[in-house]
Design goal:
6 helices; binds S-adenosylmethionine; alpha/beta; Rossmann fold
Length: about 240
Amino acid sequence: MPKVDYGLDAPKMVRRLASRAGLMMVIAIVLYYANRTTNPAAALPLATSLFSIGLSLGLVAGVMFLSSRVAKLKVRDRILESIPWRGDENVLDVGCGRGLFLIGAAKRLKKGKATGVDTWQADDLSGNTAEAALANAKTEGVADRIKIETADARKLPFAAASFDVVLSSLALHNINSSQERTKALTEIARVLKSGGYLAIFDIFHTGAYAKTLEQLCFEDIRLSPLTLLWCVPTRSLTARKA
Ligand SMILES: C[S@@+](CC[C@H](N)C(=O)[O-])C[C@H]1O[C@@H](n2cnc3c(N)ncnc32)[C@H](O)[C@@H]1O
């Protein structure tokens, strides 16, 4: 039986941080042993400084790894538990990647369908392909309840009011300008039914999303307390379309 794998976020950055951490610590040790007899007064402070920098980089890499592999799964469950599921919803996951939220939602459906859209950026998630999301859905036993399409959050290929629930995890911050992120939120609002639920989990811009959703006439907008997953400000936001 293949194992479910929802991928590692920002894999290149995690690898780069980890390798630089290792390199820095090795250099610190080598310099210490090379200088400790000829220049003992400088050897220890120099090695300690370099080693501390390496250790800090390693810690950031470790936090990023654990945020992807452990914390994100718990956040997903908490967010999905906050939605009052009937079981017949049409769900959309914007930037679904390998299907973490998509499959979690599909597991809560009896009759409904969960659709995932993505642009499949390799730098954002390891092994980021529609095939990987489908393989995970098969392994989790929900392949018959999900659909996957290639589409940009700013131009969703769905009619207005198509979905009862829209989810988006760690996707919208990848859109560079705030104007373009507003465009994506406006698209999300368009495809969500009146009375439908929206849940966004993201880094950096969640406060701005809340303001935009207010302007788009969402109600019951709730921001979770700030956390430092991935070593940056991270929050989830839930809201209901009026
Ligand atoms: C960090 S991954 C998160 C994937 C998944 N939601 C999760 O939490 O595991 C971000 C995802 O957003 C997708 N993405 C980035 N920009 C996008 C856009 N403009 N429209 C749709 N998806 C986008 C990336 O391809 C990637 O799959």
